[in-house]
Amino acid sequence: MARKVERARLYVHSTYNNTILTLTDTEGAVLTWISPGVVGFKGSRKGTPYAAQTAAERLLERMREFGVRSVVVLVNGSGAGRNSVIQTLRGSGIRVEEVKNVTPVAHN
Q1: If you average pLDDT over every residue of the chain, what do you get?
Q2: Which of 25, 90, 103, 108 is least surrounded by Cβ atoms within 10 Å, i.e. has the fewest?
Q3: Angle between the 49-66 and 82-90 helix axes, to the nearest 10 degrees?
Q4: What is the rounded average pLDDT of the residues 57-71?
């Protein structure tokens, strides 16, 4: 049986070649993860917004199994899939509390 978690964090690691989605509880313990490669996309198609959206939809099914009602999204990277993941979450009925960009930026 899956753990029941009301609030969770979603880490979106978006590169030009792939988008990795990691769902954790509020303490940071990983509950599940998914990427377009797991869903069935291969090669350069993994970096497309549609592939990220499909992976996010599959993750939403798992989030419902865990009983997640609200999520904090932390986005890292500048790939094509970052916006499509957030739009998919917003249209799903799960409350998006906060969207944070945690992409490291050099300042030297």
Answers
A1: 93
A2: 108
A3: 40
A4: 94
